[in-house]
Amino acid sequence: MADAGTLAEETRDWLKRNPRELDSPDHFFGVVWVRHKVVSIGERHTESAHRDFVASRVRHWGGPHVGLALEIQAAHQDAVTTYIKQGGSLPDQWFTRNVKFRKILEAARATQTEVVAMDQTQAKPSSDPGPRLTLTRLDRDKHMANAVTQLISRKSKVLVLAGMEHSKEAGFSKNNPPMGVRLAEAVGKQIYTIYTMTQTGLAETGQDGDELFKVLRKEFGSRGAIAFDVDRSPLAGGQITDSIAKRSISWKNYCDGLMLFFNG
After folding, report:
1. What is this structure's pTM?
2. How far apart are the C-alpha atoms of 249 and 264, rounded to whole Å?
3. CA-based diameter of the chain, in Å?
4. At residue 201, does pLDDT exceed 50?
5. What value does the mean pLDDT take over residues 63-77?
6. 64 Cβ contact partners less than 8 Å away, ≥ 6 residues apart
7. What percent of the chain is modeled with pLDDT above 70?
8. CB neighbour burial string for 104-119, b if at least 16 within 10 angstroms, e if fewer
């Protein structure tokens, strides 16, 4: 099996030999969006270029027939729904203080795209008496998958934005798989998962992602951003280290496509 550096170089060389595989994120997303009912974008929470990108895609492709699932606490659903329908104020939370994330909500309101606050970290409302029970990450994944599945049932198109550890299409526990695995099982090939890499690459996977980002930025950084299909690339036969299970999984089971933002 090729190491991370070799795999990164093989991917760079493949893209140079096959320029038609190298696309702009805007066009790449459009093709994927037309072909699939659900597009799931996995993000690194500390980066923001991808959030600008998602906001622009919601403005372009959003509408009453589209659903947008965001990693916002379900406790804020009523406030978010009211904002989308009639404007007004939003709760003073990280997702309103984060300028780039706020742009996503503004784009959804402008296009009347339904937003589902899919996250849930508490086992009961904070207003209930007694100790607060924090859900595990995998309990959250089950909750998020259920919320997205319900959204899928009533919309013709659905866009999901969540951390990649939730979005990935592979998991080591059959009993408690991440959201991406649950969604893939629910809708099959109707879902396409894209991972966004900005500046330092894959935070959750260490050098595997960082090496790929570094090599591709050196070669294609002048473009500002690139996107390509993982399954058709050398990455399809490579492995990436999973930070949760501390084991390797295949790139093609981690995500279907990659978007790299070099100037984010």
Report:
1. 0.89
2. 27
3. 63
4. no
5. 96
6. 112, 113, 114
7. 86
8. bbbbbbebebbbbbbb
